[in-house]
Amino acid sequence: xxxxxxxxxxxxxxxxxxxxxxxxxxxxxxxxxxxxxxxxxxxxxxxxxxxxxxxxxxxxxxxxxxxxxxxxxxxxxxxxxxxxxxxxxxxxxxxxxxxxxxxxxxxxxxxxxxxxxxxxxxxxxxxxxxxxxxxxxxxxxxxxxxxxxxxxxxxxxxxxxxxxxxxxxxxxxxxxxxxxxxxxxxxxxxxxxx
Amino acid sequence: xxxxxxxxxxxxxxxxxxxxxxxxxxxxxxxxxxxxxxxxxxxxxxxxxx
Lengths: 194, 50
Description:
The complex is a heterodimer. By secondary structure, chain A is mostly helical. Chain A is built from eight helices and no strands. Chain B has a two-stranded antiparallel ribbon with strand order 1-2. The longest helix of chain B has 13 residues, at 22-34.
């Protein structure tokens, strides 16, 4: 009885040396884990199938080009490729959102108005004015850093040069400014959301 | 009310028996067989043989 299973590393080497059957063994060995991993992220069989296929196309190309080095393990490497392709899929879908065509076509499922309406604009202005008033309660050094960072959009390097303190001190002041601002908001029982 | 005689699979069960289709596997194996990488002056070219 032959209990010795050929390791992934050996199969990869055999495949790189031209043994096509080694790829079949590798796919059969790991297809369930890789496919399940992809499906658990996308929850769509067709999409999972596409990503699985693209994953192995990348694997095949890399191995055939001799670019694979057996530093890590084969399966984690393939899983990493699959993971990156899943991320690419979600990024692409974000740019081109699909509309739900299960029922009647609704044009507003593909079109949206991201501009604020009059009411939300008034609320936004009100919140911004409230925040401007609130930050006046902060200690002078924290107020200075927060104003430069948020309202003047300066980097912490620029802030440290302007105020004559180290970057770490500027970062610390910003941190305390935000903590204190939260405390002030809680003290006044304010709700600053749109 | 209409009775449902099928048991809905839980997410866990659904993940248990997941595998890509045979066509996908066959496509990959054929793709691998047909793919040739040609190295020319350090540049690697891919070609698919039919």
